[in-house]
Amino acid sequence: MIRIGQAGYPPGASGMVDAIIRTKALGLDAMEVQFVRNVSLQDSVAAEAMRKASELGVMLSAHAPYYISLNSRSPETVEKSRGWILRTARAAKALGAWIIVIHCASYSGVDAQRTTRNVIEQIAMCRKELDDEGDHVILGLETMGKKGQWGTMAEIQEVMKEVHGVQPVIDFAHIHARGGGAIRGREDFEAVLDEHDLLPTVRTHCHFSGIEFTAAGEKNHLPLDSGSPSYAPLAEVLSDGDREMTLICETTSPAADAVKMRSMLEMARSYKRTDRNKRIEHH
Question: Exposed, middle or buried: residue 277 (CB in 10 Å: 0-12, 13-18, 19+)?
Answer without folding.
Answer: exposed
